[in-house]
Amino acid sequence: VSAVPDTASDMYRAFFCQYAKITAPNGKPIEIFGGSDLSSLQIYRAKSILAFYLEDVAGSLYGADKGAVADAMADNEAKLDMPNGAHEEYGAGTSLEGQELYWAETPVEGDDWFVGCDYEHRDAAFEEILHLVHDNGIGIDKAGYPDGALPEYQAVIRAATDHAQPTSLGGTGLWGEGQDDWIEELADEGSLTQEYLASVVDVYYGLWAHYGAGMWGVYEPAARADLETVDPNAWAMVPQFFADHLTWLAYLPDTFEGTFTLAFDDALCYTHKSQYYRHVALLGANDADLVGNDGANCFGVNAGANTVTGGG
Question: N or C terminus: fewer CB in 10 A for the chain?
Answer without folding.
Answer: C
